[in-house]
């Protein structure tokens, strides 16, 4: 049991680091759309506060703004 716990303590941080360092396209997002995000909040802003500002909230992918201004289109706003 001790050996398994020691292995997990080493392996889990390595796995998490490798997943969070992947570029957005590897997570399934269109990289060009994600790069267009203009920050509308601050780090750690709650979704409700972000949306109350009239902005979009999407907590993925990592390393890009999660609270961002929508793109305006004829039909309204578009959150990408």
Automatic annotation (TrEMBL):
The keyword Cytoplasm does not apply. CDD domains: Trefoil (cd00111). Disulfide bonds join 40-55, 50-67. The chain crosses the membrane at residues 6-29. Keywords: Disulfide bond, Membrane, Transmembrane, Transmembrane helix. It comes from the Eukaryota. Residues 23-71 form the P-type domain. One of its GO terms (cellular component) is extracellular space. This is P-type domain-containing protein. It comes from Chrysemys picta bellii (Western painted turtle). The lineage of its organism: Eukaryota, Metazoa, Chordata, Craniata, Vertebrata.
